Amino acid sequence: MPQANKPLAVFITGASSGLGAALARHYGQRGAVLGLCGRRGEALERTAAGLNAHCFIAEVRDAGAMQAAAAEFIEKAGVPDIVIGCAGISVGALTEEADDLPVFQAVMDANVMGLVHTFHPFIAPMRQAGRGVLCGIASVAGVRGLPGGGAYSASKAAARVYLEALRLELKASGIRVVTVSPGYIETPMTRVNPYPMPFRMTAAAAAAKVARLIEKRRAESIIPWQMAVVAGFMRCMPRALYDRLFEKAPRKPRGLPT
Ligand SMILES: NC(=O)c1ccc[n+]([C@@H]2O[C@H](COP(=O)([O-])OP(=O)(O)OC[C@H]3O[C@@H](n4cnc5c(N)ncnc54)[C@H](OP(=O)(O)O)[C@@H]3O)[C@@H](O)[C@H]2O)c1
Q: Which end of the chain, N or C, is less packed with Cβ atoms under 10 Å?
């Protein structure tokens, strides 16, 4: 995948924490030159320690900031081999609560528009190079609507379908689009979950799986495989049964997104 004699160049959003930070370590420890993006500079620097990394403090909801970060990374490291849109937020929100309306907006903006803003500036240079992988991190929560988590479920379902469209748009260009929908990962995002999290993965294990799927250019996957089986059942479960089983499912706490 990398150009001859050039290290792999990988740009990762959400690199200041959790899965994104684990992906940075995964690729960085294998010699890649990294572009690490997040809003918290100190946390980004912690991820970057000891790695060949350029840090970009940028907000994925801000298209201009993402364009500037991409341009600077390309100037420093060349057109990336891999761009991973991993930044995201997850918080409970209820449509009936006025306080939660901005929460819906923030979740949709970060989880859907954040991907669009991340990928946009890389597509023209990747198209010209005739290569590259754009990997979007969706979620198994996007398979069906989860009560109390409508914002997050909807954002991840939208992300998955958006990535599918992008995959087809770019098929002839040599750019591959890889969608990964993880189950539960041990990160700050899930630390607040007041319910059991079956088949939970460490961030390092999830990062290794994502990297393998990117290497295989797998169009769409759910990880781990046990969660893929559960998602398969959920997808084809009749609506009446789904409603009965999930109406009382434990809910992600409401709150304000960061
Ligand atoms: N943990 C899970 O069980 C799980 C399961 C399925 C899918 N996922 C998905 O995996 C991805 C990573 O989640 P995680 O578990 O690693 O969560 P995390 O530890 O909370 O990390 C989230 C990352 O996203 C960045 N981020 C959030 N909003 C941003 C914004 N507006 N602009 C720029 N960066 C932003 C954060 O950086 P700053 O705060 O520094 O900006 C942080 O680096 C997310 O897309 C999440 O939805 C997670």
A: C
Q: Whose CA is nearest to atom 35 of ligand 1?
A: 87
Domains and CATH numbers, the chain: 9-246 (3.40.50.720)
CB-based contact 183:200 (threshold 8 Å) = yes
Query: Best of 56, 86, 146, 155 to mutate for ligand 1, by most ligand atoms within 8 A of CB?
Result: 86
Ramachandran angles phi, psi of 13, nearest 5°: -90, 160
Complete DSSP assignment for 160-221: HHHHHHHHHHHGGGT-EEEEEEE--EESHHHHT--S--TT-EEHHHHHHHHHHHHHTT-SEE
Residue nearest to atom 47 of ligand 1 (CA): 88
Ligand 1, closest atom to CA 59? 32
Cis peptide before 224 (omega within 30 of 0): yes
Distance 239 CA to ligand 1 centre (A): 30
Each residue's pLDDT expressed in tens, for the chain with a length of 258 residues? 556 678 999 999 999 999 999 999 999 999 999 999 999 999 999 999 999 999 999 999 999 999 999 999 999 999 999 999 999 999 999 999 999 999 999 999 999 999 999 999 999 999 999 999 999 999 999 999 999 999 999 999 999 999 999 999 999 999 999 999 999 999 999 998 888 899 999 999 999 999 999 999 999 999 999 999 999 999 999 999 999 999 988 888 898 776
Catalytically annotated residue among 27, 152, 162, 184: 152
User: Is 184 designated active site?
Assistant: no
